[in-house]
Amino acid sequence: MTRSSDPSRIGFNAVTTFGARVVASIFSVATGIVIAKTLGPSGKGTYNAVQLLLSLPLAVSGGFGAALVFALTKRRQTVAQLFPALGVLFAASLAIVWVAVAAWSAYHGWNVVTIALVAAAPAALVVSWQPGYYVGTGRLRRMNVQSIVVALLTLAAVAVALLVLRTGVAGAVAAWIVCSYLLAAVIVFDAVRGGGYFHRRELRERLGELTHLGSQSALNTVLGQVNYRVDSYVLVAMLGLAQFGIYSVATNVGELLFWITRPVATAVSREIGSREAAPAAYLTAVTIRVCAAVTTLAALALFVVGPAAIDAVYGTRFSAAAAPLRWLLPGIAAFSTAGTFASFFLFQLGRPFIVTVGNVLMIVLQAVACLALVPRFGMSGAALSSAITYVAGAVLNTWYFCRITGLRARDVWLVQRSDLRQVWHIVEQLVRAALRKFRHRNRVTFVGAPLAVAALRDALTRYGDAKRRSHLSSTAEATSVEGLCDAIRGADAIVRIGDAHPYATFEDLLERQARGAYRALEAARRERVGRVVFADVPIEADEHPMAVAMAAYVESLGRLYADKYGISVACVRESRGGNRLSELVAAALADRDLHFTPYGPAARKGAQGRRPNAFA
After folding, report:
1. Predicted confidence band of residue 565 (pLDDT cuts 50, 70, 90)
2. Phi, psi of 570 (to 5 degrees)
């Protein structure tokens, strides 16, 4: 693994996720502005109270989402193996939420908030697993697109409910719930489509594994959610929903800083969990110090322009949010790296207890500070309590991380010259990739025997208008990785066509299949080609006793490069008499969410993680 390729890929994932989060957050902020201007502090407080109370059960299910990432990355399990266990956990979580809300409402009565909790719970529980599923399967692009679309739909639905239908806060909450169900339906569809056959016989084993790690992660997520929202809970109890509505503006604006760090933490979680200990610690330290530097600069800018922005966007009724915002910023800047620390403790070490202890200590500290400061200083007291707690949490995370890894605190927080070079390299690669996308069509290079290449190229142009959308070229099979790098330079995708002959010797088969596949994947890694498709000619198992072994080797090698280096890999082959090889190749080239697809007809469906079927 080279440092030159990995930072570029991680940086690209981080930047694209950051961009998607920014766009989605802009739509979410716009939704809050519509609610604030239409319903005022009281209405905004009620709308945010629904999400605040729902965040506790979602924190529980989100903890099992972290276990899902661990199972998909460190344990190398498939979605098909985990799907039944997730269904059991979903049913149990939903039952607990409904029983708790019903018990509360039996004594205090039903209102908009409690009704909304019951209605939104099923969809919200599914959505809480979205990051775990898409991060664990390496499908960040899909998750990012969903975030943008749902945020836009929510804005449109809330605007129609408030400005056109005049339905008040109940209509705004209902619009948000409907959009949550749409997102949940898409997530379930993706999981069922890509999960394969359910392994019911492994239900007890998988349920035990997810419960063991997920219960600890869920506890951490709940404690973390309480840690983030202790000030809000105390404020609602002491000052009411109207003051909470104003304070929520301060927290929403301050947490814009999380736009910087949370996408990066999402992008590196898979890498931190799948690497060895020393490289994972190095990646964690680099990520934290770069994000901390950028976040600090952004906090200084927000400290200056934040109050004026609140008046301009939300109106003078929310001007009182300026003071708590400025108190919050130092703590948010210090604690914005907590997600990256948690990724190392959870996915690399598998020790959620570390996060648990830290959250408990922070909750106690923040609760005591809030009870002491809120009665005297109001909203500013709540903000000051949070800032003190977040700084203490950052210090605690740093101390334990350095103790485990042997690194120094300066290695974690002080930017180094090499970091600036890596950031510049990532920006340079992104700019070049963007320019290439604007200037050229997709470049697909075919590698293999000339006759087979020519036949597949001619057939491929009949599917999806590939000839109009892509620039198709071909090159002869190179005998070295360096030679193939020269031949494919500038390509966006490689299609390698196998050439196994019924009477070839084992050495011929080894050269044409195994070594050729390695050269194609290694050249793609070095030249940063994002997609490799292996298209093998029809052969039968009885004609080639070693062909099955070679097919399994090529598939395993493709999965390795897909998991370790982020290259999208598809292996497609038709049985003798089949005539759909070009259709399979076209589908693999067009699949935007492709991570890894094995041999067989499963490739047509874009399935991931199924067992090898070399002669379908």
Report:
1. confident
2. -130, 140
CA distance 369 to 372: 5
Q: Which one-letter amino acid corresponds to residue 579? A: N
What is the model's pLDDT at position 68? 74
Residue 614: pLDDT band with limits 50, 70, 90: very low
CA dihedral sign of residues 6, 11, 14, 19: negative
- Which value, to the nearest 10 degrees, does the dihedral of the CA atoms of residues 281, 282, 287, 290 take? 140
| Contacts made by residues 376-379, CB under 8 angstroms, sequence distance 24+ | 378/239, 378/243, 379/235, 379/239, 379/243, 379/246, 379/247, 379/250, 379/320, 379/321, 379/323, 379/324
Nearest CA among 87, 414, 397 for reference residue 265? 397
Average pLDDT score over residue span 504-520: 79
Q: 444 forms bridges with which residues in the sheet?
A: 472, 493
Q: Which two structure tokens, joined as six digits, stand for 557?
A: 């090698």
What length is written for the chain? Answer: 616
d(CA 558, CA 521): 7
Model confidence pLDDT, tens digit, residues 199-254: 555 677 777 777 766 666 666 667 766 777 778 878 878 877 778 888 888 888 88
Phi, psi of 337 (to 5 degrees): -90, 5
What's the Cα-to-Cα distance from 462 to each of 354, 378, 456, rounded to whole Å?
Answer: 57, 69, 10
Spatial separation of the C-alpha atoms in residues 539 and 381, rounded to whole Å: 74
pLDDT of residue 603: 37
Question: 99: exposed, middle or buried (C-beta count within 10 Å: 0-12, 13-18, 19+)?
Answer: exposed
- Going along the chain from its start, the domains and CATH numbers come out as 5-421 (no CATH), 442-605 (3.40.50.720)
**Residue with structure tokens 């598809």?**
570
Q: What is the pLDDT of residues 255-265, one digit of tens each?
A: 888 777 777 77
Q: Confidence class of residue 6 from pLDDT cuts 50, 70 and 90?
A: very low
CB 111 within 8 A of CB 170: no
For the record, the structure tokens of 4 come out as 């030159």
Nearby residues of 431 by Cβ (< 8 Å), 6 or more positions away: none
Distant-in-sequence, close-in-space partners of 416: CB < 8 Å, separation ≥ 6? 289
The single residue listed with the structure tokens 């997709």 is 442
Degrees, nearest 5: CA angle 292-293-296: 80
Is 340:203 a contact under the CB 8 Å cutoff? no
Distances (CA, A) of 574 to 374, 477, 547: 69, 22, 14
